[in-house]
Specification:
Layout (H helix, E strand, L loop, with lengths): L14 E5 L6 E2 L2 E2 L3 H15 L3 E5 L16 H11 L4 E3 L5 H8 L6 E4 L13 H8 L4 E4 L21 E3 L1 H15 L5 E5 L8 H7 L5 E4 L1 H10 L14 H13 L3 E3 L3 E5 L8 E5 L8 E5 L1 H12 L3 E5 L12 H15 L4 E5 L1 H10 L7 E3 L3 H7 L5 H12 L1
Parallel strand pairs: 1-4, 1-7, 4-6, 5-6, 7-8, 9-10, 9-15, 10-11, 15-16, 16-17
Antiparallel strand pairs: 2-3, 12-13, 12-14
């Protein structure tokens, strides 16, 4: 990997300017899900124990360059302090003389959390003036926020050109997992791609079918593929204007020897509601007054057979409307099967995306997967094969070193 890891550097007495992703959900001013915080803290603790000083930069929400107390990172400080097991100082700005003074006041093993980066108008513009102010806060820049690496912002791109730069433990972990799943996967490798619309994942599908041996398609996306095969859709979510796209993806898959797996049967209902009356019909038999809301049992059994024969399983997107029972059945069943195969050492499983993480959590399968990414947009762009600005900045810094 052509990126320096901060864990390989001498950090004693050094002030690390760490770009973290502490963009966590809040309820009544308190953190309601501290998963990102605890994962970040676990990687930072060994650095603190080695005598590093941490200046932590993050964003929270979308304040659009304006001061807004509703997006203040002060709301995150207590949860961060608890995860680190030590006091966390707070600075009411992330750049300028006040922040510099607070950073210089740190002793070895101490932590400073700076205010929301996105209160600074220059952050999202990748402004070099702001980047210089951020670089003035310490000795080494550390990007530990893969989920923000698809943004060319001052704290993810410009700053890496101004000071020694390295990747944090979480970012390294994420890159290694994703590269193992997509760049050099153990074969055969299979992706499960679901979600509502083909149009939002065209680039993902086009990239995956050229790299993997199989792609399972579920969710509303599968409806569009089935429609392109001539299936009636009734009231189902379906992008009728994407038929040419579907055929292009199928042709590309054929050229590269990638098998595309679609549902053989589907679960339909007349209303989208918890506990709604439902039935299983063949893939091409949805009545005019019904909608497809999940893959059927025959389909899921077939998908289980596909992943049972795989050495690498990559998952992004649910098979159906998993938020509402009983239309979560297909997703939960396949997730648990993938988890069982992983626990048995039969495959490596990597999953990511907001809906995917929620679905795996609902299935109780998250802990058994080899790696679950909390990144949203960055995970999707990686699946598309795009160059991520934050990663490219670290690679350039390594070349320049």
């Amino acid at each position: 990997m052509s990126i320096t890891a901060i864990t390989d550097m001498d950090v004693a007495g050094k002030t690390l300017v760490v770009r973290a992703d502490l963009n966590v959900p809040l309820q009544d001013g308190k953190v309601s899900d501290a998963t990102r915080i605890t994962r970040f803290a676990a990687g930072m603790l060994p650095l603190l124990e080695r005598g590093a000083r941490l200046v932590i930069l993050s964003h929270l929400g979308r304040p659009k360059g304006e001061l807004n107390p509703a997006f203040s990172l002060i709301q995150v400080r207590d949860a961060l302090a608890q995860a680190l097991g030590r006091d966390v100082a707070f600075c009411e700005t992330s750049a300028g003389p006040t922040a510099e003074h607070a950073a210089r006041a740190l002793s070895d093993g101490q932590v400073l959390l700076c205010e929301n980066l996105r209160f600074e108008p220059g952050e999202e513009r990748n402004d070099m003036t702001l980047a210089r102010q951020l670089a003035a806060l310490g000795d080494i820049y550390v990007n530990d926020a893969f989920s923000c690496a698809h943004r060319a912002h001052a704290s993810t791109a410009a700053i890496a050109t101004l000071m020694p730069a390295a990747a944090g433990p979480l970012l390294i972990e994420e890159l290694e997992a994703l590269r193992a799943a997509l760049d050099a996967p153990k074969r055969p490798s299979v992706a499960i791609v679901g979600g509502a619309k083909v149009s939002t994942k065209i680039a993902v599908l086009e990239h995956l079918v050229t790299r993997l041996q199989g792609v399972i398609i579920g969710g509303g996306m599968a409806n569009t593929f089935l429609y392109a095969k001539g299936a009636a859709m009734g009231k189902s979510l379906c992008e009728t204007d994407q038929i040419d796209t579907v055929h292009r993806i199928l042709d590309l898959a054929k050229q590269h020897g990638c098998a595309v797996h679609l549902p053989d049967d589907v679960v339909i209902a007349r209303e989208f509601a918890a506990g709604a009356a439902h039935e299983v019909v063949p893939w091409d038999a949805c009545p005019p007054d019904a909608m497809i809301l999940d893959a059927g049992p025959k389909s899921v059994a077939g998908f289980e057979g596909v992943i049972a024969g795989a050495k690498t399983v990559l998952w992004n997107g649910p098979l159906g409307a998993f938020e509402i029972p009983p239309f979560d059945t297909g997703t939960v069943r396949l997730a648990r099967t993938a988890a069982e195969l992983t626990r048995a050492g039969l495959c490596t499983s990597v999953a990511g995306g907001g809906d995917t993480v929620a679905a795996l959590n609902a299935a109780g399968a998250t802990e058994s997967f080899s790696y679950v990414s909390t990144a949203g947009g960055a995970f999707l762009e990686w699946l598309e094969g795009r160059v991520l600005p934050g990663i490219a900045a670290l690679e350039r810094a390594q070349e320049a070193a």
